[in-house]
UniProtKB/TrEMBL annotation, chain A:
Organism: Acididesulfobacillus acetoxydans
Protein's UniProt name: ABC-type Fe3+ transport system, periplasmic component
An annotated Gene Ontology molecular function: thiamine binding
Any one annotated GO CC term: outer membrane-bounded periplasmic space
Entry keyword annotation includes Signal: yes
Domain of life: Bacteria
Keywords tagged on the record: Signal
InterPro entries given in the database record: Ferric-bd, SBP
The organism's taxonomic lineage, starting at the top: Bacteria, Bacillati, Bacillota, Clostridia, Eubacteriales
UniProt GO BP: thiamine transport
Membrane as UniProt keyword: no
Signal peptide: 1-26
Automatic annotation (TrEMBL), chain B:
Gene Ontology biological process: transmembrane transport
InterPro entries assigned: MetI-like, MetI-like_sf
Protein name (record): ABC-type Fe3+ transport system, permease component
Subcellular location: Cell inner membrane; Cell membrane
A cellular component term, taken from the record's GO annotations: plasma membrane
Length: 359, 596
């Protein structure tokens, strides 16, 4: 009996066939693409650009750039958190050329790890506005292409009368907002950390922490991300939220009853920053792309709501660019959050927030 | 998330396996082992390894070991609390899933066949619908000023009880009961009627037969389904984030996500926490094996059974399952459907707020959208086929080879279910983008192959469990009989094993097919630049606060999936009928021959 069973051709051949076919397919495809993005160690013959981005208008920008230059743009569009996770996981063998997302302290984190091309100056850099200039780091590792507010106050106009609208951050401590204010968890939501860091900046660390604790005592709700927070506002679960202004703008233009308020003591700059990989496989194309984004033609692509949705409601940082008229431009008191300090304090401040406010 | 069912009756398999220990010998389980190593063990090792070698992927690479990541995991009180929360929620939810799944399986065995087919198909739908649709649907329905409040004028705060861990357990139980249902359903067909008859003859009542004979005999089935439900709940992030956003129950996966959003991304900490998740799940599985080993469940009979029940009882059973489906499926799916038809989110259910424009917009996807849909269909078909084949091979080996290697791999593949998808996806970057692969041109990261491998890795554990379950139904006697008539293994597999597990193989195919269509973590971290999948496209709608657009795309994707599933079912039904006709024809041919 065993003699028969020792010969088991079928049982052995079938799995082997499967494995062989997988390995063959893998090798063929692996080799086939290794001249492209898969193995940056080898020089790419065809002109291309691998572009990681979390911006709403990235796809339109990629197409416009490709049409203008003939350089093929391969886009990976995702949330900032996933883009950064991907870049960090690739760090020993990076595939990307250009990265673009909101949040200079996050980008500063990548710079601190030595991943970004430093001391490169795009042409036309003198076109940056004063606000724009102030957002360029000393080592020139990344450039601002737009500015939004890390947090503004969004109120549901169906639930509050205009005289109840808050004017500044501290107005949110009044009984009007008892159990009716929400924000995001900075440990999970990317743009929320600059907001928390910004409050510490303008109020001082001790008072800033006290402010969040007072909000908590007034019934502040902390949701994981913009998604939950904005839905809570629209459904009427809360009367006001403090989240990134472009997210509020996105809902406002769709016809939802939202009014965006920029607190008088200041809102915190959340620049959309663009950077080049220090070991970019396609360095020349990468530089050309960043220059295109900062040019008037590129800015026009960004400001078109058809391309970027809510992300198109930004404040320009390039001189002579017409901002989207639907967005408030004047009367905003911008407070610049120092990205180097913010990046340094990030983990300890997030932990404090989690232990004292979220919990 | 890959949804799937489980029909594993592992111990039965092991029992037969141990009897057949000498049935095969030598290196028979090596091919399966290689598959699992390449697809699961190696990627996971590159990630979990960072818990001990935190600089494994730094530049320059360093193999300097460090206990710091593990110390930080075990030293933190919050992590401990998170683990306890995840465990208790996973357990509670698994118990609920077992109760619901047992009820639905037992009930469907009693209702009239036609009603049963319809209800069964809807349970498959519960299975297919992506978790985020269910979770989001419940939120839209239950929140203050949500759909229910709008329809009935309930005051704010009416649903506070729901957005707690009780609501979470409830939703997860409703989400994962099909695992138990499908496991039990198969096992129920093969209950040894002799034992039931014996019980009746000894004067046992209906209730006694159920509690003393049928349910104990089904232990492997509900434990196997329950263990998947546990692993799913233990490793959940999305449902908890949606249902309990403000109650904030720290769970193990929350801690993993928080370390992934640290700056720089703290992979060693995520690895340490994931390692704990894997160990706990593995311990749960080992415990289950140990529990099953103590008893003998080898009570298979080949005769299908159908318990005769009274008419009114049948009707109430059918109504019960329909009610379960109403809560588990129609409420959340209906809420999502409504939301996809709203002009504005804040407008809610008000009369003037309805539009089809999101669907028109979604169908006018443009070239990119259709390409993404086509791409996802291609991935789905290819990975479903490969997963089905591999699960057959590995399942066969696990069922009939009781080697330590296969048992270890079995535990490992199950543990993978509890690892958050994003962690498994990141591990594929580390594994297939590693510097040591550059000289041999095997940097698969960034190619479609890498994404397909990740899809297979995340669906294989479910598929294998399903195959092992189906194969454990094969009476060892048949195989032995075939053997003693001199049949070679090839013949045994082709003529006996394959025909008997055909249905399961087809189930694993559709499970993978639909899972891949909506899979997100691996898709978004691993898709080749410039070639997004359909799920990535949907997610980018949600990321840009176009919820109605995202919901409309999801519904379109679901329609595609249902169409594929319906087509598959028709094919199976048709081929079964053709086979039956052929067999009848053969019988008819035989009779005159014998008579003449």
């Amino acid at each position: 009996m065993r003699q028969v069973n020792r010969k088991r051709p079928y049982a052995r051949i079938l799995p082997l066939l499967v494995i062989i076919s997988v390995i063959v397919a893998a090798t063929v495809t692996g080799c086939g693409t290794s001249t492209g993005s898969a193995a940056p160690a080898s020089a790419a013959p065809a002109k291309q650009l691998v572009f990681y981005s979390a911006q709403g208008y990235d796809s339109a920008m990629a197409k416009a750039f490709q049409a203008k230059t003939g350089i093929q743009v391969k886009l990976v569009d995702d949330s900032t958190g996933k883009i950064v996770a991907k870049i960090d996981a690739e760090r020993s063998n990076p595939h990307w050329d250009v990265a673009w997302f909101d949040g200079d302290s996050t980008m500063q984190g990548l710079d601190n790890e030595g991943m970004l091309l430093q001391n490169w100056t795009p042409k036309d850099v003198s076109n940056l506005t004063a606000l724009g200039q102030s957002l360029v780091p000393a080592d020139k590792a990344y450039y601002p292409a737009s500015v939004t507010a890390a947090a503004a106050i969004g109120v549901n106009t169906k639930l509050l009368s205009p005289d109840q609208y808050p004017k500044d951050w501290r107005d949110l401590l009044t009984p009007v907002f008892k159990n009716s204010l929400a924000m995001n968890d900075p440990s999970i939501s990317g743009p929320t950390y600059p907001y928390v860091a910004g409050i510490m900046d303008i109020m001082g660390t001790a008072q800033g922490k006290q402010y969040f604790q007072d909000l908590k005592a007034n019934g502040l709700r902390v949701f994981p991300t913009n998604d939950n927070t904005l839905k809570a506002l629209l459904a009427g679960q809360v009367k006001a939220v403090t989240i990134q202004d472009s997210a509020l703008a996105a809902a406002e233009v769709k016809g939802d009853p939202i009014k965006i308020i920029y607190p008088s003591s200041g809102v915190f700059t959340l620049p959309g920053v663009i950077a080049i990989n220090k070991n970019a496989p396609d360095m020349a194309a990468a530089k050309q792309f960043v220059e295109y984004v900062l040019s008037p033609a590129g800015q026009k692509v960004m400001a078109d709501v058809k391309n970027g949705g809510g992300d198109s409601y930004f404040n320009p940082v390039i001189n002579g660019i017409q901002p989207n008229p639907a967005r408030q431009q004047s009367g905003i008191n911008w407070v610049k959050v120092d990205p180097i300090k913010a990046a340094k304090d990030e983990n300890s401040l997030k932990k404090w927030f989690h232990d004292n406010i979220v919990q | 998330m890959i949804t799937s069912s489980n029909k594993a009756e592992h111990t039965k398999a092991e029992h037969i396996g141990s009897r057949l220990r000498h049935w095969g010998s030598g290196a028979g389980d090596v091919p399966g082992a290689i598959l699992l190593v390449v697809l699961i063990a190696y990627p996971l090792a590159t990630l979990l390894g960072q818990a001990l070698l935190p600089h494994l992927f730094s530049k320059p690479m360093s193999l300097l070991p460090s206990l710091a990541p593990l110390r930080s995991v075990f030293g933190s009180k919050l992590n401990l609390e998170a683990l306890v929360n995840s465990l208790s929620i996973g357990l509670a939810e698994a118990v609920l899933a077992i109760a619901l799944g047992s009820f639905s399986a037992l009930a469907l065995a009693r209702v009239p066949r036609k009603v049963g087919v319809v209800l069964d198909a809807f349970i498959w739908v519960v299975f297919f619908v992506p978790s985020y649709v269910i979770a989001q649907g419940w939120v839209i329905l239950m929140q203050d000023k949500g759909i229910l409040a709008q329809l009935t004028g309930l005051p704010n705060g009416w649903s506070a009880w729901f957005f707690t861990r009780f609501g979470l357990v409830l939703i997860m139980g409703l989400r994962y009961f099909p695992y138990v249902h499908f496991g039990m359903q198969e096992a129920l067909l093969h209950i040894n009627q002799d034992l039931v008859q014996a019980g009746r003859a000894a004067g046992a009542g209906r209730r006694q037969i159920m509690t003393k004979i049928i349910l104990p005999l089904l232990t492997p089935a509900w434990l196997a389904g329950g263990s998947i439900a546990f692993a799913e709940g233990f490793g959940d992030f999305g449902i908890a984030a949606a249902i309990t956003p403000q109650a904030h129950i720290p769970m193990a996966t929350y801690q993993i996500y928080a370390s992934l959003s640290e700056a720089p991304v703290n992979y060693p900490a995520a690895a340490g926490m994931s390692m704990v998740v894997v160990l706990v799940t593995a311990a749960a599985i080992v415990l289950q094996f140990w529990w099953l080993k103590k008893r003998n469940y080898n009570t298979l009979s080949s005769a299908a059974s159908r318990d005769p029940a009274g008419g009114s009882n049948r009707r109430s059973m059918a109504v019960g399952v329909a009610a379960l489906l109403f809560v588990a499926l129609f409420l959340p799916l209906g809420a999502t459907l409504c939301a996809s038809l709203w002009k504005t989110w804040s407008g809610g259910m008000s009369a003037g707020n309805w539009t089809l424009s999101h669907y028109f917009r979604a169908l006018r996807l443009g070239g990119d959208g259709w390409q993404a849909l086509g791409r996802s269909l291609e991935y789905s078909l290819v990975t479903a086929f490969l997963t089905m084949s591999m699960a057959l091979v590995v399942g066969f080996q696990m069922s009939f080879k009781d080697s330590r290697l296969s048992r270890l791999l079995n535990i490992l593949t199950m543990s993978v279910i509890a690892v958050p998808g994003i962690v498994l996806a990141a591990s594929f970057i580390f594994a297939w983008n590693a510097v040591w692969l550059i000289p041999i041109h095997l940097v698969l990261y960034g190619t479609p192959v890498c994404l397909a491998m990740a899809y297979i890795a995340s669906s294989l554990p479910y598929a294998i469990r399903l195959e092992v379950g189906a194969m454990s139904q094969l009476p060892a006697n048949i195989l032995k009989a075939a053997e003693s008539f001199g049949a070679r293994n090839r013949t045994v597999i082709r003529k006996i094993v394959l025909p008997l597990v055909r249905g399961t193989a087809i189930s694993t195919f559709f499970m993978t097919f639909t899972g891949v269509m909506f899979e997100l973590p691996a898709s978004s971290l691993l898709y080749p630049p410039g070639q997004p999948t359909f799920s990535v496209l949907i997610q980018s709608k949600f990321d840009n606060f176009d919820w109605s657009g995202g919901a409309a795309l999801t519904v379109i994707g679901l329609v595609v999936v249902f169409a594929a599933y319906g087509l598959g079912r028709c094919l199976v039904y048709y081929s079964a009928r053709v086979r039956a006709e052929k067999a009848q024809q053969a019988d008819r041919d035989m009779v005159p021959a014998a008579g003449g």
